[in-house]
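re the bet — no i am not wrong, look at it urself. input seq straight from the record:
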Amino acid sequence: MNEKYFKGTMELTKLLFRQDRKKIIIWLLGLIVVTIAAAYSYPDIYKDEPSKQAFALTMDNPAMVAMLGPGYSDEHYLQSIGTLFAHEMLLFSVVAVAIMNILSVGRSTRADEEDGRIELIRALPVGRLTYVTSSMIVILITNILLVILIGFGLMALGINGLNAESAFLYGAILGSSGIIFAAFTAVFAQLAETSRETTTLAFGFLIMTYLIRATGDVSNETVALISPLGWMVRTGVFADNDWWPVIVALALSVVIIALAFYLNVIRDIGSGFFPARKGRKHASTFLLTPFGLAWRLQRTSIVSWAIGLFALSASFGAILGDLEMYFADNEFVQAFLPSDAGYTMTEQFITLLMAIMALLSTIPVVQAVLKLKGEESKDRIDHYFSRAVSRTKLLGSYYGLAFVLSFLYQGLVAIGLWSVGAAVMEEGLSFTTTISSAIVYLPAMWLLVAFTAFFIGVLPKATGFIWFYVIYCFIVIYLGGILDFPKWMNAISPFDHIPQIPADDMKVIPLITLTIMALLLTHLGIVGYNRRDIRG
């Protein structure tokens, strides 16, 4: 391709690095610190052969295979502590890196074009592909830094089995995964007409690859290999150290990026290959309300998340029958089950699953409120206040939408798990138990929504902090035991106070306390929103 298409790439790359340097540093620090801290903790947790055998037994069941991917042989677990670390950490780390790259590419391509920044840059003597090329270079360098820093970090721990090749392969898995999802997001940025549609398509693709991998890992390995995530959990890192998934991912990324470049050249700026549908000539009565407009602006994202969460929970419900048979046929597992426990191992698995699904549901619920801050940042908020709309009603509409969505998403999670699980299990799950195990997390979700409303009203420049809080909550749920957090650190997360039904008894006091805290923060947010200056 003619080099005139890339004129000014280096200068623009420096500008994009300067613009995103804080976000890049925060993402890298978060990923590296969590990875290194988790790896450092494993030798203290699994000190002897029985503890490693117990780990192998716990992970060798259909539910954990669907959630985390296929494991290693017992011999590998005994020989290298790295295999235990990789089995439990690798897949979720890959997903976290994918999210980082999806958000970064979506922001630096379609979002910048939507806000008019690319048009401003294109007014200068730069090439047609300069902006997208610079964005991909920033992403490439970010992922290379991730590979190098994680590789050296794991190697420096000096843990048995974490040699140089294994350490850098682990980093390369994360880096190559990030690059391939960045490449697909760059293509989606050409197909979609808005940044919201771009990220929706990208996250939908991520969920689809996870579901394909989960289905294939449980039933058919060939199906799992269709998904990039299916490749990454088959490297045998810290054991066989197969590099082919990394090589294939990088090769495919080159092809996908080339496709993104081609699509960028042939489309008009500000347009997409999936044009927005024409709306009605006259707005409905519902659309004329702040709540109706908030719903309409986010309808595509809401529906996409609803489908994704239902499909994800249903896919886990589909393997509950195999899980039940696995525990029934395994005498060793049965020996560890208390005779008076009152709940099955399947129900114990559901407690972990529901906690993770509740956090996933929290993401679109928080996004529903943050949309108001996005409208303000783009100077669209004046359109609301040109009519007789109070600030309380406006913020309350977005908060109310998030409140409704919390019920919707958790209800879909419960129904998906229960309906499919009941079809494959000899004794189906109790609907009451399943719905209770999902709905019980609503107060924790409301507290995060209330924090979002508080930041919008009182500290609008710090609204991004809510995502660090969401990530922290996930770390507490998934890694709190591994990292041996003190009780006060776990207590910072509202999800730590939720009774894990059916393994725990219902505890009303923590739920009431979280709800009252959510109401208080929401009130402070509304008061602050009414008093502060509105941008623009």
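see?? The chain has two domains: 1-276, 279-536. told u. also Confidence is low (pLDDT under 50) at residues 332-341. so pay up
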